[in-house]
Amino acid sequence: MLKLGSRPAVRLLVLLVAVGALAFAACAPVKKSGPQIRAAFDCLGPDIADNQNQMFVVPAGVSQINIAALGAQGGSGGAPSGSSGASGGLGGTASGTFAVTPGETLLVAVGCMGGNAGVGIGTQGVGGTGGEPDGLGGKARGGDGDTAGSFGGSGGGGGASDVRRGSTVIVEAGGGGGGGGHGDGAGAGPAGAGGVGGGADGASGGDGDDVCTGGGGATQAAVGAGGSGCGPAGAGNPGDPGVDQMGGDGANGTEAGGGGGGGGRFGGGGGGSSGDEDFSAAGGGGASSFVDPTATNPATVAGNRPGNGIVLVSY
Fold it and tell me: Does the pLDDT value for residue 82 go beyond 70?
């Protein structure tokens, strides 16, 4: 018999503890890590072909992936020297988990941020490219901001980011609207900011002064309406409505231009312009987002992406 406290007894006790620990570890469940980001696709700049025809090939052994698409922000509005135009709306997010087949190729288009209007006279921001290719900047590109005859131009709408299975869009994130231009008069108030991209629906652009109203946010069923102009009769112009997936162009004004609408599932409307130096113009509306109903865990989040869009693939 071993005496407690003797060296052989202590050694035996240590051995039993070690064996017990190993047995417990063997029986304990193994923690599995969640999906990891395996591919990221960015806006590659103004070259339409390179930017809109990126591809993801499903690797061997992978039968399910998560896709998160984030739309692009709208550009900021311009202003006379010494003041600032309104900011562009942030892009939205759309995500879901999809069943896939090894070797399958998915097509990816990433939205680019709408152009910022410059400081000074007659400058404008061009709408960001994005969405399904069409040779003209993408079917879901942002609408252009517009120049102003005397003062602040406006920001272009942000482009959509999408992923396609052949010609079928399975996930698409809406871009934000462009910011309106600032008037130069002493009485000019803030210009309207661009509406954020969806979410299920995009947000309307911010109103400018007087009756300059922001472009409408797009919904799951319709484009956003163009905003109304302000100033003396006939001097301020209405923005264009969205056209299918493309954002509507902002209105040209004699004093300050309206922001372009964002591109997405449906495009946001362009903001109304100002025809009076004491009135600032309105922002463009944000676009809506979309997740195909075949996805599990579908989700959309409004207005959480600054700058260019991005598409992330996880598994």
Answer: no
